[in-house]
C-alpha cells in the first residue's frame, strides 16, 4: 500500500452565481486542502475575516455561488489498483480526472473512494472538483423531498451537510464549500484492508477483542493471512482465494479495564492488524492498521421506581454520575481544528471536572484526534447521529445517504473505549410531539424509522458494546418512541430544560426533579478581548451593530436582561454590562448543576449547554470562540468538584423554606469531618452556628437539615450562611445581590512576579463576592486562575496570571480588570487599602 497525499498545487475558481463587486479576479486563487472556499479567499486577501463585525452578511454571496478546485499530480503505473480517496467533500461535488467524470458526491459526512486506474495516465494528471452552492441545492431538494419543519432560515434537513454551517442560534451562517478533509492517491496490489472493526468486551477478568476484517482484493488469486497482536497475545487466520472477510479473536487474561476519569485509570492497549500473502514469500505486509483500544462495559440503567423511570450510565458495572457538557464544532470551519487545539479544549474539559462530552447532532462525527484524546483523558463520549431540530425525509435519496454515513461513522468510532452512547437525534422526537410538526407534515415521513429501526439496527450490528438511545430528550417506550408520550418528561428518561432561559428565572431549576438532564444552559458574552477583537463598534454597546450581529439567539438580548434583573440591576456602562452578564451566566448554571447533584441518585447526571464556541459570539459556552474560559468555566469547575458542599431549600417553592446542607461525595473514599455552619452578618459577626460530625460514604449524598435559627434570618439583606466541611466551603445568601447590603469593595492588592507571569494577592477588608481578574483586557493571551472567589473580611486569595507582559499592580487592580459583584450593587467607590492600615483581625 502506498498512500500519497494530494495536498499541493490546488487552485480555486468561481464558476457561477453572484459575486461581490468589491472583489477582483476569482480565478486560480491558491487553495489549501484540507480547506474551504471562505478560508482560501481569506488567505488570498480577497475577503476580510468572516468572524469580524458584519462580514457574515457581506459575504453571503460566497455560499450562493459555485466553485471549482483544480490541481495536478504525478502518477506512474506499477500497482494493480490506483484509487482516489476523498475523506470529506463539502458537500455537493462532481469530480473529474483528466476530464473524465469519476464521482458525484452529496454528503459532507462520508468518505468517497474511486477506482481511478482506468483514467490515470503516466506523468501528469489533472484533478478537478466542482462544488454546487449548498444553499441553492438545499432549497431545490427541499421542494423535491417535500417541505419539512426545521429550526433555521435554510432547509438544512434536505441536504447531508453540517447543519450549523447554515447558521444556528450561536453559529455563523457560512454554508461554505470545500475539500474539508484530506485527499489521497492509494496504490496497491493483491489486497488492502477495507475495514477493521474491533469489538472489545470483558469476560470475567479477561479482555476479549473480536476484530472484524473486510478486505478489498485486486484479484482473487492466492490465499492471504491476517494477523492481530495486542498486549503480547496474537491471532492469525488464513483467507482462502476469493474470501474477503474474517473475524480474529484475541483473549487477554487479567486485563486492565478502561475507566472514566475519577473512577480509575485509562488503560489502553495497542492493537496491530496486518495482512500479507499466506505463502510467506515476502515479509512486507500488504496493508496494516493500528489503534489504541480499551476494555470496558457500558450499560444503560432505566429502573422503574416511585419517581418514574431512571436513566443512568454504568461503566464496568458501576454507576457513573455524569458531569457533562455539550460539544459543538470548535470552529465554523472544522478543518482548522488540529490535534493541538483538540488537546487544549479536552484538557480544559477535564480540568473543569467533566467526565462526558456530548457531540451534538447538528455538527459533525468528530475526528480521531477528538476521540483518542477523550480516551486518554477518561472523558466519556456521547455521539449524536447528525439529525437535529428538524423532520427528515425517510425516502430516497436521503435515506441511503443517512444510512451510509451512519454505518461509516459507527464502524470508525466504535473502537474508542470512550464512546458510551450513540443517540438517534437531537430534539426531533420532542419536535414531532410538541412543536406542531404533525400539522405541517400532513402525513409525510419525519424520521421515526431512522430512530426506531435503521440507526438502532446499525448500532446493534456494528457497536453492540455501545448504548443506543433513540433521541435526546426521550422517554423510554417499548417501541423506542411513543408519540402519545411527552419525550421531555422530567420523571422519565432524559430531558432538556429550556423554559428557564426562554421564559423564567434560573432559580426555577429547583422546580424540577429530573432523572437526567441532557441540555440546559444560560447565555453570556465572550471574553472582553474576544469581543473587542471581533467588533470595531464605536461606541460598543449591548445593541451596537456588531454586538447584534454576534447575538444569534432569538430575542437574545431581551432574555439576557430578563434573566439578570431579578438578581442584579441592569448596568448602563459597557464594561459593567459585560461583567454582570458573565457573572449571571455563571451563577445560573452553577445553580442548576448543584441542584441536580444534590438530587442524586434520583438524578444521575447533567450535560450543560455548552462547553465551546465556534466563533466569537454571545452564547451559552463556557469557553469562547478564541479559547478563553469565561467565568462560567470557573463555575463549572466548582460545581463539578469531586466533593461538593451545597446549601439547598427543602421546599424550593417557598420563599421561607427550611434549608439543608447537602454533602455530595463523588469519590471512592469516605468524606469525614466536622460540618460547621454559621449564620453571619456581612461584616463577619457570627449570629448563630452549629457543628456536627459528618461521614459521607463513597459516591453518595448526605443531607443535613439546618435548625430554624440558621435557616431563617432576622435581616436577610445583611446576613448569610457559611458552611465548611473538611476544607470545602460554600455560602448561602438570604438576599439576591441587588437586595443585599453589600459594602463597596475594600481590599489590599499586592503583586509579585512568579513563574510564567504574575501572582496577584487580594486581601479583603469587606465581604468581597465573586472576585475575578479579567486580565485578558490587558493581554489577550493572559489566563487567570482561580475566578469567582468570595472572600470574608480579612481573608486573602492568590490569583495566578499567566502572561508574557510586565503588567503593573495599577493595571491589574483597575476596577475594569479586578471585578467583584460588589461593584455592580454597592453605591460607594472601591477602596484599595494601604498595607499598613489593613485590619488583620
Automatic annotation (TrEMBL):
Domain Glycoside hydrolase family 2 immunoglobulin-like beta-sandwich: start-end pairs: 237-296
Residues annotated as domain Beta-mannosidase-like galactose-binding: 28-181
Coiled coil keyword on record: no
Region Disordered: start-end pairs: 1-27
Recorded superkingdom: Bacteria
Gene Ontology biological process terms, A to Z: carbohydrate metabolic process; glycoprotein catabolic process
This protein's name: beta-mannosidase
Species this chain originates from: Sinomonas atrocyanea
